[in-house]
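Backbones bend. We report:
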Amino acid sequence: MSGTDDGHPRVLMVVEQLRRSTPGGIGTYARGLLQGLRGLDPADRPDVELLASRAAGHRGDRRDPLDDLGFPVHVSALPGPVLTRAWDRDLLRSPAGYDVVHAVSLATMGTGDAALVSTVHDLLWRRLPEAYPRRGREWHEAALQRSLRRATRFIVPADVVAADLVEAGAPPEAVTVIPMGGDHLPPPDLEAGEALLDRLGIGGRPFLLSVGTLEPRKNLVRLTDAYGRIRGSLPEPWPLVVVGPAGWGERLEASPGVVLAGMVTPGELAALYAMTRLLAYVPLIEGFGLPPVEAMVLGAPVVASPLPSTGTAAFEVDPHDTDSIAEGLLTVATDAAVRERLQLAGRRRVAECSWTTIAGRHVAVWHEAAADREGRRGR
């Protein structure tokens, strides 16, 4: 087997998602995985380098923001849109000299002699096509087919995604389920969080929280309708703070008590989780569901759809039933015993979701992929 002197494969991680203005959940996964790798014992950590397009406006005399991630960065001369189109059309392959290339999303490329590991976060455009724009569905389906042709190993965050991927054509033995971590946020910046709430007109009042991209799949219209039904039954008309970037589809309008906060900093988000009465996260469908795990790490009780991420640690509601959502919001917001039970269950759940542990499981898959590669070369 090739690789480094310590027996580890040389790994190239494709982190183009981190060049986007809104990296989203995939960007959080990439950063969390790199954080976990840094936390491993050096003897257990393979040589990892990163691959991405050139930064917008970046020149050779300026520091690349990706350098702050703590790993060498292989920067393409191409801008992001051109680079990914070249990958899609198999016009450009990964640099030579690596045993394993790991794509953190469905944006994959030909890898020549290296083994390709692809993380597939979900196949939800197949399960709920109306929740995706047509062009998005078409790209995801074409990217899935390229990944199935190119990759020898797949990582997915949940059993339901593994089943969908096998149904799409992946060999079952090539799919490994590894959940996402939740300990990637910085400590709560309570001062910044309180200042944010002041700017939003909330001041020191209790509030409910929702976190996620504003798009149809996140079910925010039903959530805000449910909140409207119970607002008058709360001890006071506590507001619902909605955090997240604009996505696509019908715009979510502010309604009585609903406060649209937009994007916030990681420190502010951690503070909101630490201060909120609850996190409400009720998507119609999800491959994993990261915000509930983030909230549990910081002690917030969670009201959620049935999700892979929550286990039995959330107060589960039917995302298609506004009354069910409303009942969950009112119960968790006002019942101290329920809140305490959920907080305890949340702490137990997130004890299983350390990025360092998850990084170690990725390293094991990279070793398997490198062994697959050696087996092919030996035949």
Q: What stands out?
A: The domain at 11-181+354-378 is CATH 3.40.50.2000 (Rossmann fold). The mean pLDDT is 91.
